[in-house]
Amino acid sequence: MIISDNHLAKVKKQYLKKKRKIDKNIRRYIMAYVIKDTCIACGACEPECPVNAITEGDIFVIDAEKCIDCGACESVCPVGAPEAK
Question: I want to staple 66 with a disulfide (CB 3.0 to 4.6 A). Which of 15, 53, 82, 84 is the partner?
Fold first, then answer.
């Protein structure tokens, strides 16, 4: 059986659409990190986040929707401000 490029592209598009939906549902069950008030706003955590979930404000903040619970921020923080929620 020969599969056309067009058919392959359709199947890939359907797969990616379903995968995004599954990933979104799974993300609800992942425990995101939060940054406690002990944050000294040094910025060490921000570049370590592989999904850019950390943004700067008065203190740094982690977007729970983006956080993948990898712990990279926690391991570089000098005051231990990031913690698992």
Answer: 53
